[in-house]
Amino acid sequence: MYSVERTIQIVAELGFKGIELSGVRPHINPEDYTKDDLKRLRSLLDSEGLKVVGLHTDDGSPHTSTLVHENERARRWKINHLKTCAEVASQLGAGLVTTTAGYSWTIGTPKEKAWQWVKQGLQEASKSCADYGVVIALEPCPGTVVIDSRDGIKMLDDVSSDNVRLLLDTGHAMISFHNTWKESGPHPVDAILESKKYLAYVHADDNNGMLDEHLVPGTGVIDFEDVVKALRQIGYEGYVSFELGTRDPRRGFKDSKKHLEQFLKS
Ligand SMILES: [Mn+2]
Questions:
Q1: Whole-angstrom distance between the N-terminal and C-terminal Cα of the chain?
Q2: Residue 10 Cα, ligand 1 centroid: separation in angstroms?
Q3: Using one digit for the tens of pLDDT, what is the confidence trace for 152-194?
């Protein structure tokens, strides 16, 4: 709940090179920002030496995750939101917009119908995103239509666009592996290895294996040494972002960075 500007300063002070920004309120909802606002933001980012990795078009709630909403206008809103976020992303120098497939369980849509809506929504949005040079990174998440990396790969094959790729969240992969929502998904390490041709981006966060706690890496059950090894093995060259829910963000991000860097150096 820091302002965008203050967040950028804090993240830069902590020694990070990139930042993923939120494309929904209270942060950068595209309709709330003029071109001049974005220019000012871009100069702040440049002066702090931070690159924007991407713009997240979801806030983890069914309010913004509406590719699968039964109301056609709500689905349309999300497709347009992906497009306007891609425009903002390009103005901020970012290469990605990120999204989940949407929470069909919450809304009560049959999975097959929801799957088609996600597929069509991503296909349409990806064309506009491509015009801005922005890739859509689809994030598998338990509770959504695309639960794990195998669902993600299946969706990407169905969508069949170079402009839609995969975002793996280590914490999401761990809870789908632990079989909370359906048959077990792949272990986070296998999820990475299997996603070689699809992977555009990684969220790093830890948990107890059951709940999506977004803990500091190293404080849950995920072995991040193995995660880093797997990323090396597939030749991953994208960003790894820490996506944490913590009462002390400065300490949480500092500890996360320290934890991963020991494996990057080795
Ligand atoms: Mn995530």
A1: 35
A2: 20
A3: 999 999 999 999 999 999 999 999 998 755 567 899 999 999 9
CA distance 139 to 98: 7
Kindly list the distances between the CA atom of residue 251 and the CA atoms of 13, 191, 247, in Å, as whole numbers in the listed order.
Answer: 12, 29, 9
* pLDDT tens column, 100-116: 999 876 667 788 999 99
Distance of alpha carbon 79 from alpha carbon 124, whole angstroms: 7
Residue 139 CA, ligand 1 centroid: distance in Å = 7
Look at residue 97 and give its three-state secondary structure.
strand
Write down all domains in the chain, each with its CATH number in brackets: 4-265 (3.20.20.150)
Instruction: Say how many Å lie between the CA of residue 15 and the centre of ligand 1.
Output: 21
Span from the CA of 39 to the centroid of ligand 1 (angstroms): 27
Per residue in 190-229, pLDDT (tens digit) is: 999 999 999 999 999 999 999 999 999 999 999 999 999 9
Dihedral, CA of residue 80, residue 81, residue 83 and residue 89, to nearest 10: 170
Does the pTM of the predicted model rise above 0.85? yes
